[in-house]
Amino acid sequence: MEEYAREPCPWRIVDDCGGAFTMGAIGGGVFHAIKGFRNAPVGIQHRLRGSVNAMRIRAPQVGGSFAMWGSLFSTIDCGLVQLRGKEDPWNSISSGALTGAMLAARSGPLAMVGSAMMGGILLALIEGVGILFTRHTAQQFRNAPPFLEDPSQLPRKEGSRAPGYPSSQPYH
């Protein structure tokens, strides 16, 4: 089974920023299309126009917010990998906490602490589920024990006994 290899650090930031923008734009588009449909005046023409209009205006904004989060997270993650010299789940957890704190910095220290805790907890849950999933799927690909043939069918040397059968010789 081939492992998923991530991009090296400078390109990882661009890759994660683009992926986060795409995810935010698609998710925000769906969310705001439904919201625009529900909040539009009665009539299918009005509702469809309201849906498309809300999606057109708000989806890129949500995508941009996701892109900002993704690029800041990746930048901090790459910095921690460089600083610590290893890539492990603690980097992601710390990056989530620091990203949450930095994005809430304009709201004050209390909001920074709350956002840092939420970012760290969220990333800890994601990393924990990833580790559990990896362990669970790794068990499926373990090598099976070698197939043992019926011991009575194996050729025996003179004076030896087949496994599992008592010997006619007394024990010393």
TrEMBL record:
InterPro entries: Tim17. GO terms for cellular component: TIM23 mitochondrial import inner membrane translocase complex. The chain crosses the membrane at residues 110-133. It is found in: Mitochondrion inner membrane. It is a multi-pass membrane protein. Pfam families: Tim17. Residues 145-172 are annotated as: Disordered. GO terms for biological process: protein import into mitochondrial matrix. GO terms for molecular function: protein transmembrane transporter activity. It comes from the Eukaryota. Keywords: Membrane, Mitochondrion, Mitochondrion inner membrane, Protein transport, Translocation, Transmembrane, Transmembrane helix, Transport. Component of the TIM23 complex at least composed of TIMM23, TIMM17 (TIMM17A or TIMM17B) and TIMM50. NCBIfam families: 3a0801so1tim17. Belongs to the Tim17/Tim22/Tim23 family. Essential component of the TIM23 complex, a complex that mediates the translocation of transit peptide-containing proteins across the mitochondrial inner membrane. This is Mitochondrial import inner membrane translocase subunit TIM17. It comes from Rhinolophus ferrumequinum. The gene is LOC117034180.
